[in-house]
């Protein structure tokens, strides 16, 4: 029987803080970018396209636990061309990419939907699934939102070529690969035309915030009910200001909104939290001693059980033929040597004034006692081959790379701690590797 890792209580009230830590990617890794798309599936993060000095056509998989990047093929006939401001979602082992084409006369592909099979590790024609001939389907667009609700992908708005901001609302049925329009362009009861907004799903409803309507920045907030197919405007006294190019994720019973800006050249580092139960906004403070990055046109993805709306973890029973495998969990004090011999995954409260045996642990715990704390910039060599992050009581959880190679990765994925990755965005970093920050929420 699998045993979940035990640790400090991790609930957060309105007085909680956000703890930000920059990750230093291993080599090779993608270049820094913005207007890209990312999503997580089964403990891995997938990143596609975007811009640096030009539009990019590359596809990468990131293993957060091992801190390793793998470049995947994006050159087959079924693969997308260069894309920017597109969307990518995951559902049952398949990645669905929509929109973002350059719309030039030299574009070889006129289809705005691409499908990547994670198990086969290849791009496949979307028509390979059972489909029906359709009279209508959404045209290529940029800056739209795409979320997964049940067995469908919901796409709202976007910038459509010379037509500008769109109010279209579409649904793609994953089982039939059939598109259906959920609201007409003339419908004035919903959010209306917009792009560069954000959207999340919670309890069979889609929540949409901000964006651009033409050249006008927005801060309105909407809910779409999948049962009644009705839009509701959510008016609150507080909340974020006008935002474009921000990101959003569902965390427990809340919506997290990060970054973006009131205009294109003013990225912010504000993190806001909206409670779906109390219908209130509050700004999340930054943990003392760390700084959140100012980002716009970035992407974010959540990992861990509290981000289940964004992180799809396959059933452990189906993955392991209904046979539970033991998950070793050890808490110090205990002999480090004996634990390493058992191949365990260790948890320890690290202290700045203590030395640790073992190469991986010593490198993970080199948090120089100068003004650099757990969230300060460190030499990439000092991070080691493991993921570390801090809980509210300064407890570091450490996953050693060697442990992941002994058949326990399924359990590690299941018990991944809750963290939000913020990937890329403007301003670009001065060095080539993509900018990655992970954020955890702590109780004050």
UniProtKB/TrEMBL annotation:
Domain of life: Eukaryota
Pfam families cross-referenced by the UniProt entry: Kelch_1 (PF01344), Kelch_KLHDC2_KLHL20_DRC7 (PF24681)
Keyword Repeat tagged: yes
Gene3D superfamilies attached to this UniProt entry: Kelch-type beta propeller
SMART domains hit by this protein: Kelch (SM00612)
Record's keyword terms, sorted: Kelch repeat, Repeat
Cited PANTHER family: ACYL-COA-BINDING DOMAIN-CONTAINING PROTEIN 5, FIBRONECTIN TYPE-III DOMAIN-CONTAINING PROTEIN
Listed name of the protein: Ras guanine nucleotide exchange factor F isoform X1
Species: Betta splendens
């Amino acid at each position: 029987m699998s045993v979940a890792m035990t640790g400090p209580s991790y609930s957060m009230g309105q007085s909680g803080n956000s703890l930000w830590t920059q990750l230093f990617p291993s080599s090779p890794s993608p270049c820094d970018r913005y207007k890209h798309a990312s999503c997580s599936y089964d403990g891995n993060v997938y990143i596609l396209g975007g811009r640096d000095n030009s539009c990019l056509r590359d596809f990468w998989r990131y293993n957060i636990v091992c801190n390793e990047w793998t470049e995947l093929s994006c050159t087959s006939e079924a693969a997308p061309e260069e894309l920017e401001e597109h969307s990518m979602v995951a559902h049952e082992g398949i990645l669905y990419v929509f929109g973002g084409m350059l719309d030039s006369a030299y574009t070889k592909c006129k289809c705005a939907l691409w499908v990547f099979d994670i198990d086969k590790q290849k791009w496949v024609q979307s028509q390979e699934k059972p489909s029906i001939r359709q009279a209508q389907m959404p045209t290529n667009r940029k800056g739209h939102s795409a979320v997964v609700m049940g067995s469908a992908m919901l796409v709202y708005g976007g910038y459509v070529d010379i037509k500008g901001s769109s109010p279209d609302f579409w649904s793609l049925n994953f089982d039939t690969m059939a598109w259906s329009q959920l609201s007409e362009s003339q419908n004035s009861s919903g959010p209306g035309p917009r792009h560069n907004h954000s959207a999340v799903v919670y309890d069979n409803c889609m929540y949409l915030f901000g964006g651009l309507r033409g050249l006008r920045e927005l801060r309105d907030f909407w809910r779409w009910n999948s049962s009644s197919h009705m839009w509701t405007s959510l008016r609150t006294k507080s909340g974020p200001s006008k935002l474009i190019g921000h990101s959003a994720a569902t965390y427990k019973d809340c919506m997290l909104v990060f970054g973006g800006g009131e205009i294109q050249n003013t990225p912010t580092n504000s993190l806001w939290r909206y409670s779906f139960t109390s219908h209130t906004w509050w700004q999340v403070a930054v943990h003392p001693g760390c700084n959140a990055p100012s980002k716009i046109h970035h992407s974010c993805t959540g990992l861990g059980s509290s981000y289940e709306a964004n992180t799809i973890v396959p059933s452990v029973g189906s993955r392991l033929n209904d046979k539970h495998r033991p998950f070793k969990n050890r808490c110090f004090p205990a002999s480090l040597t004996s634990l390493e011999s058992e191949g365990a995954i260790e948890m320890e409260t690290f202290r700045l004034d203590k030395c640790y045996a073992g190469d991986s642990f010593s490198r993970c715990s080199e948090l120089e006692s100068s003004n650099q704390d757990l969230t300060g910039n460190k030499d990439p060599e000092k991070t080691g081959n493991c993921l570390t992050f801090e809980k509210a009581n300064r407890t570091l959880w450490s996953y050693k790379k060697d442990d992941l190679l002994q058949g326990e990765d399924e359990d590690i994925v299941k018990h991944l701690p809750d963290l939000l990755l913020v990937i890329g965005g403007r301003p670009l970093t001065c060095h080539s590797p993509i900018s990655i920050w992970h954020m955890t929420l702590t109780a004050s």
